[in-house]
């Protein structure tokens, strides 16, 4: 596909074309197949293995059967042909290179072979293919080499296994793609020219200062294209990604292999095709890429100017990007996703904003949010908010720990009732035990058909409840048809001599203990929590409060 959206492909020797510009006004959802009118453009004399547009879109080169043919893109007229296994255009669309065999590189300008300034060292390396761009690139086994189009000098030879080379339109960035990773390099033409002007000898390795490594990304780029300083590519794992600055981001995964055709800025969409040339597209706002580039450069003023031009549906991606860069406050301002806004509010300890969001969410969906608010409120010593959050989340376990820590007996009694109503019997038992209500513990055990445990517990903590628990135990066994076993369980009222602790003395001690240690008065839970919060607020930090 050329920059204007004209698509050319072949079926056997037939050449077909379509124009993606015609779908500009059609609303297309991401990932849906695009209906495209196809017409036959002509035929080609070779069986194609590759098709390459010139940078300006005027010409198309077909390579196959050890030959190449250059056609005009509109009329499909033969412009030039010759022997060659690989073909590469220069940025000016008037110069191109052809690889013949494994060692011979021919350079043409205005469709005439250039007899001066041959590519130095080309005959000494076994090459597998050539690649166009700001420099002429070639790859061999374990290396790539870059030549200056005009002089034929070696700019740089790099030891790396490469499958493809992609240059950005500015001629400043280049992606060298291997099987499992790719490298993004920055070409410094000024450094290269300075080396030449110094008169220093240029060896076969070229000028080391000519390239700087920008990033190494540990995934292979199968098909790719540059849009400004943004590198868009597909991976072997069926994902559409883009690279900007020094990091890679995923646009979308696929459920089948797709091949990148190109990007049309007017549509703000990436276009891809499958093996049957069914066309698909995905949105990628160029302003989003420009914004990310500005942020990565640290130019926040430029980023602020670009932000209003980013479509609202892309704001979530912007916020995720900002969060990844550690700019969480800015991400909170940008995001339009309530869940993301909630998460950022928690991370920034803006609990009031998090509460407002949680209150707008349906009750069933809000439980996890209230639980998260409660946990964070505890961490920042906001006990009042933590209590409210745990209550709304139904997190009785966390609420019990909080109530125990602030000594809220009234709250614990309410919690025990709620836990029992919700069937959280273990929690209800623990709350009753903390309240010092052993009789209520026995009643709960009996109610939940744990009569044997109730009897044992009562014998230890509340002897007066033993007869009731024993009778419940016997009734359970009788219902199960085990009356003989039930009759073997002694009742302390009928057989006090079997209880070695002395039954009457145990009951008397229980009654005396209740008189000497009556239940603690119910605390004013609200004032307790408020005092604790105010005490913490007055301290500058938790450590200062402890030291004081």
UniProtKB/TrEMBL annotation:
Disordered: annotated span: 508-548
Topology of this chain in the membrane: Peripheral membrane protein
Protein name: Uncharacterized protein
GO biological process: intracellular protein transport; vesicle-mediated transport
Keyword Membrane among record annotations: yes
Origin superkingdom: Eukaryota
Annotated localization: Cytoplasmic vesicle, COPI-coated vesicle membrane; Golgi apparatus membrane
Biased composition (Basic and acidic residues): 508-517
Keyword rRNA-binding: no
Domain COPA/B TPR residue range list: 291-474
Keywords assigned by UniProt, alphabetized: Cytoplasm, Cytoplasmic vesicle, ER-Golgi transport, Golgi apparatus, Membrane, Protein transport, Repeat, Transport, WD repeat
Pfam families attached to this UniProt entry: B-prop_COPA_B_2nd (PF04053), TPR_COPA_B (PF23953)
CDD domains: Coatomer_WDAD_beta-like
């Amino acid at each position: 596909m050329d920059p204007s959206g004209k698509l050319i492909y072949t079926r056997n020797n037939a050449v077909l074309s379509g124009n993606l510009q015609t779908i500009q006004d059609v609303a297309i959802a991401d990932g849906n197949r695009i209906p495209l009118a196809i017409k036959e453009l002509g035929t080609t004399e070779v069986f194609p293995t590759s098709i390459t547009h010139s940078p300006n879109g005027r010409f198309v080169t077909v390579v196959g059967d050890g030959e190449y043919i250059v056609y005009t893109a509109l009329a499909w007229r033969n412009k030039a042909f010759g022997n060659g296994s690989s073909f590469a255009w220069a940025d000016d669309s008037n110069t191109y290179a052809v690889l013949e065999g494994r060692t011979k590189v021919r350079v043409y300008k205005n469709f005439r072979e250039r007899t001066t300034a041959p590519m130095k060292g080309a005959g000494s390396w076994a090459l597998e293919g050539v690649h166009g761009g700001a420099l002429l690139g070639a790859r061999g086994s374990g290396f790539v080499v870059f030549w200056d189009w005009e002089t034929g000098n070696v700019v740089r030879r790099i030891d790396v296994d490469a499958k493809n080379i992609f240059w950005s339109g500015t001629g400043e960035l280049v992606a060298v793609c291997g099987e499992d990773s790719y490298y993004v390099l920055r070409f410094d033409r000024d450094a290269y020219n300075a080396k030449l002007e110094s008169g220093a000898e240029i060896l076969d390795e070229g000028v080391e200062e000519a390239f700087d490594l920008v990033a190494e990304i540990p995934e292979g780029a199968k098909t790719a294209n540059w849009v400004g300083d943004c590198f868009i590519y597909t991976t072997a794992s069926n994902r559409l990604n883009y690279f900007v600055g020094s990091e890679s981001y995923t646009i979308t995964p696929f459920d089948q292999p797709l091949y990148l055709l190109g990007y049309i800025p007017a549509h703000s969409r990436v276009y891809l095709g499958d093996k049957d040339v069914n066309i698909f597209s995905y949105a990628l706002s160029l302003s989003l890429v420009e914004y990310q580039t500005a942020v990565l450069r640290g130019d926040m003023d430029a980023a602020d100017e670009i932000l209003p031009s980013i479509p609202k549906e892309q704001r979530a991606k912007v916020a995720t990007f900002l969060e990844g860069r550690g700019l969480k406050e800015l991400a909170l301002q940008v995001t339009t996703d309530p869940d993301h806004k909630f998460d950022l509010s928690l991370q920034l300890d803006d609990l009031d904003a998090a509460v407002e969001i949680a209150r707008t969410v349906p009750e069933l969906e809000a439980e996890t949010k209230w639980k998260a608010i409660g946990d964070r409120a505890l961490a920042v010593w906001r006990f009042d908010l933590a209590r409210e959050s745990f209550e709304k989340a139904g997190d009785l376990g966390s609420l019990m720990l909080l109530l125990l820590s602030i000594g809220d007996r009234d709250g614990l009694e309410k919690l025990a009732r709620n836990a029992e109503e919700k069937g959280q019997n273990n929690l209800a038992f623990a709350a009753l035990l903390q309240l010092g209500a052993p009789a209520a513990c026995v009643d709960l055990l009996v109610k939940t058909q744990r009569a044997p445990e109730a009897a044992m517990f009562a014998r230890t903590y509340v002897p007066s409840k033993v007869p009731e628990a024993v009778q419940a135990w016997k009734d359970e066994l009788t219902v199960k048809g085990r009356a003989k076993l039930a009759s073997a369980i002694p009742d302390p009222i009928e057989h006090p001599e079997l209880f070695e602790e002395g039954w009457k003395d145990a009951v008397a001690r229980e009654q005396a203990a209740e008189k000497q240690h009556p239940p603690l008065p119910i605390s004013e839970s609200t004032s307790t929590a408020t005092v604790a919060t105010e005490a913490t607020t007055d301290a500058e930090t938790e450590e200062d409060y402890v030291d004081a």
